[in-house]
């Protein structure tokens, strides 16, 4: 990742299977467990359709957050206004920035909420309700 890059998006390509095999071999030889786990997460992300690589304490703009979440910037602004996504102001500026770790926490919360809704719907259907 270049020092100026906010996100490095890794998309699968024709050589991905070969690259995954090579990365897996390298990961198996790593002595640091945290690094080994990070490489394995990257491999899994590449194999499942792409991965985003960033440091958790990196700061992103609302537009970049919107791209990460696959929503509009206006929706991110609404989430910030509602307090659902934490933010801070750039030093000596009115511009807001969001930590990548806060985006990940929001996305995990959103996925858990969607899973609960799906489970509730399935319970209603299993109970015999028509839809």
TrEMBL record:
<dbReference type="InterPro" id="IPR010093">
    <property type="entry name" value="SinI_DNA-bd"/>
</dbReference>
<protein>
    <submittedName>
        <fullName>Helix-turn-helix domain protein</fullName>
    </submittedName>
</protein>
<dbReference type="Pfam" id="PF12728">
    <property type="entry name" value="HTH_17"/>
</dbReference>
<dbReference type="InterPro" id="IPR041657">
    <property type="entry name" value="HTH_17"/>
</dbReference>
<dbReference type="GO" id="GO:0003677">
    <property type="term" value="F:DNA binding"/>
</dbReference>
<feature type="domain" description="Helix-turn-helix">
    <location>
        <begin position="59"/>
        <end position="110"/>
    </location>
</feature>
